[in-house]
Write a structure and sequence with these properties.
Length: 327
């Protein structure tokens, strides 16, 4: 009888979770966020195709025309100088220059060129923006890291621990901002950057009713909680749950960036399935309904010395599987 009730409760949670996600994917709300997700997806498609060794001239016109329509839709909600639009327009300028330098043109590209010129005349980059290139490609020289530099990066990875005993005082807000900015250089699916970050200070922990249950009794030592979310509306229906991947990559980068700026941190995990009690807490701290909480980081200042779990890592051979089908 108990097993039956637990099974029903589990499957009901699954149903509610899919209902929650479907409301975002199929609903008309969050239209602006969906447009941004598609616009960034198409922008990245232009950029990555131009970064191939052998570029097919005239590629991607259908995606560019679709992106131009997305810009028209976006302008109902935002401005030409908003970053997503600037990213597309600069990538489009790079695309047109690429074809002009190779003396390639057809009626479709000429049509695109005219529409791009019209949009560029309307947008006015501010003096600080005029020096920033938001989209396109750049040539990168391969960086050969010295033994000393490799040792430094190894030290960074080995020195990162899950810290649960923090020093008193508030984490420096500028150091935290720098760590977040550094972590934003993580890879994300089609550069959509489909994640969010919510910083909850100790004074507002009371809004997280019951949320701290079972995390091991170090709540009183935490200065802030960083809620990392996946933005569901940035993805298509066919990309179900992909928002978990990009936001998890961001979380991993952030944990290392916090180490760089001398901020202690510990991951706090909760089940990803919908939970009405936790959802009430998320509503109180303002987490958007088109975002799913993926994980959290409890952070604080580091003491001069502190105890951490050994957390022994197994040998690489325990996870490595070399595939040698065609020998």
């Amino acid at each position: 009888m108990i097993f039956c009730k637990q099974t029903i409760a589990y499957w009901w949670t699954i149903v509610k979770s899919h209902w929650f996600i479907s409301n975002v994917l199929h609903g008309s709300i969050y239209k602006k966020n969906k447009i941004v997700g598609e616009l960034l997806r198409n922008t990245h498609s232009i950029e990555k195709d131009m970064s191939l060794e052998n570029v097919r001239l005239g590629f991607g016109t259908l995606k560019i025309l679709a992106a131009l329509r997305l810009v028209e839709e976006y302008l109902k909600y935002g401005e030409l100088t908003d970053e997503p639009v600037m990213m597309f327009l600069d990538a489009l300028d790079s695309y047109l220059r690429f074809h002009e330098e190779r003396n390639f043109c057809n009626s479709t590209i000429e049509n695109i060129r005219g529409r791009a010129l019209e949009l560029n005349e309307k947008r006015k980059k501010s003096p600080q923006d005029s020096s920033i290139v938001y989209g396109g490609t750049i040539m990168v020289e391969h960086q050969y890291y010295t033994d000393q530099e490799q040792t430094f990066f190894s030290k960074l990875f080995y020195n990162r621990h899950s810290v649960r005993d923090f020093a008193d005082g508030a984490v420096d807000s500028e150091a935290l901002r720098k760590a977040i900015e550094l972590a934003l250089h993580c890879p994300s699916a089609c550069n959509r950057q489909g994640f969010g970050l919510y910083i909850v200070n100790k004074i507002d922990f009371n809004l997280l009713d019951g949320w701290f249950d079972g995390i091991g009794g170090f709540t009183d030592r935490i200065d802030k909680i960083l809620f990392i979310t996946g933005k569901i509306s940035a993805y298509r229906q066919s990309e179900m749950h992909q928002w978990i991947v990009s936001s998890s990559i961001f979380a991993a980068y952030l944990s290392l960036a916090l180490e760089v700026y001398n901020i202690g941190a510990c991951f706090i995990q909760r089940q990803l399935l919908y939970n009405s009690k936790r959802q009430k807490s998320y509503d109180k701290i303002g987490i958007a309904h088109d975002e799913q909480v993926i994980c959290c980081l409890g952070i604080g200042n580091l003491k001069r010395s502190y105890a951490v779990p050994i957390s022994h890592r197994m040998k690489p051979e325990t996870i490595i599987h070399n595939v040698n089908v065609n020998k």
